[in-house]
Amino acid sequence: MRIGMFSDVYVPQRNGVATAVKLYKDKLEEMGHEVFVFVPKYSKDFKRSEKNVFEFPSIKYPLEKEQRIAFFSPHVFFKIKRLSLDVIHTHSPFSMGILAYWSSKFFDIPYVGTYHTMYEYYRHYLPPIIRPPLSLTKKMIRDWCKRLDKVIAPTYEIKKVLTNYGVPDEHIVVIPTGIDFEKFEKKIEWNLREEYGIEDKKVLLYVGRLGKEKNIDFLIRMFKKVSKEIDSVLVIVGYGPEEESLEALVCDLGLRDKVIFTGGLPREKVIDVYKVSDVFVFASYTETQGLVILEAMAASLPVVALGKMGVRDLLKSSEGGIMLEDLNEDEFARAVLEVLTSKEKRDRLAEKGKRFVKENFSIDVTVRKMVELYKDLIG
Questions:
Q1: Cβ atoms 203, 278 nearer than 8 A
Q2: What are phi and psi of 230, to 5 degrees?
Q3: Which overall architecture, per CATH, does domain 2-178+362-378 show?
Q4: How far apart are CA 319 and CA 171, in angstroms?
Q5: For residues 46 and 31, is the Cβ–Cβ distance under 8 A?
Q6: CB atoms within 10 A of CB 139
């Protein structure tokens, strides 16, 4: 097959959607398919050498510097027509998603999309004057989904959300976003404990975007309670608009020597960080799936997380972690301490989590399901 992937984010950006699109491309090509990726140009200084990646002029979104808005001219449709695509898969409803939609209409190409992001929880990144009300945002999501031939929901919880918004049940296919499980089996090449001189401390780990909706401020306040009970550090991997305010909170709470901000790290180093940590902590309420939860479990790292949206599906099914119903600092801290102080508990969670990911969420398993969907639509 000749597959067109359209996305507003792509490597070297470090987020779940960018990683997923790259993994899809690599695995589909390994299976013998041809994949063409359409993305905004990352920056004028970044030279991309990867085959079959088409970049478009873009500008940074003012309130979120890592996000880009791409522009395209009509002549791009001639290029897309020459590619003779069998199927179009969009990962965004916005700039590249608009190009995907019109390409599918002009050339009568089957058109699927993955609902990666709970956009209704990200409205605060829009200035108030153009911020749509929640009801309109839900309608826009529903209308985008219904324009697709099929919409892919990463979990059954997200399928429920979409049906509640008015998307027909039969229009939704549940296919999880997979991970490159074999990379989590490799030996450690970079040891964060040695790098930061924390060999003898317990390590709590957060990986992800530093955004308001991720509730990292809650994790920092919760960690203060944990650190009073056990010699530990909180490692925060990632970057985002809340970085400065989170660093200020750390100082205000007197945790400057106990909280480490690594910034963004290459994927290979992130995988190594999972492997040398003791517990993964996560309090986001906006995840369609929670790719970092799967990565933690793939690295045999127990998870303590807020059980909302897609994360609820993962923890309920895997038994690879402790799931909290609400954001309560005392309850969350008790759960973390339970993992840190009981080797038996930790080992049991680690074993169940790793097995669950290997059997259900390896990129091989999920891409095969995606290929079957493509074939059904083409056939």
A1: yes
A2: -150, 145
A3: 3-Layer(aba) Sandwich (3.40)
A4: 30
A5: no
A6: 14
